[in-house]
Amino acid sequence: MEAPAQAPVETGPGPGPVPAVDSPASAAQAPPPQQDHLRTEFPFQLPRGYVDESGTVHRDGVMRLSTARDELVPLRDVRVQENPAYLSVVLLGRVITRLGALPMVHDGIVENMFASDLAFLQDFYRQINAEGHTRAAVECPHCSEPFEVELGGSRLGES
Questions:
Q1: Rounded Cα–Cα distance for residues 56 and 100 (Å)
Q2: N or C: which end of the chain has fewer CB atoms below 10 A?
Q3: At residue 143, what are phi and psi to the nearest 5 degrees?
């Protein structure tokens, strides 16, 4: 008994063999080209942790990329208009999607964090939203070893 004939196979950039495309009919059945995926959420761990009303410490969280809306909406907030330094609190309350076992994260949570955790989150926000543009390759003047330095230093919410 003969084995059934199989379609020719080409290897592509994907994870495995891809059927060769010989005709419009087989092209319609071919899988769509693999698309690049944009990473929009980033895990973090607070240096100290947020302590809730019951005394539970929440350290592990997730921050998403900021949108233009995330940076514009807080500017209408009265607290930000009265005190521009409050911008980072409101902005972080919008982009932190998870913190420990808390059911929801908002600016009230952020404003009750330890100052070291707030500073950490401000730096983390800059890092994930700058798309790596705040790092520079340098060379040690003493030993000539290459390394990277963080150049970011602008305030949260500013370009």
A1: 9
A2: N
A3: -115, -5
Q: How many Cα atoms within 13 Å fall on the side-chain side of residue 93?
A: 16
Q: So where are the chain's domains? A: 41-150
The pTM for the full model equals 0.62
Q: What SS3 state is found at 40?
A: coil
Residues of the chain with pLDDT under 70: 1-34, 131-137, 149-159
pLDDT at 136: 60
* Paired tokens of 66: 């900021």
Phi/psi for 24 (5° steps) reads: -60, -30
Nearest-Å Rg of the Cα atoms of the chain is 24
Strand partners, 139: 146
Give dist(CA 74, CA 42) in Å, integer: 22
Cα angle value 6/12/18 (rounded, 5°) = 25
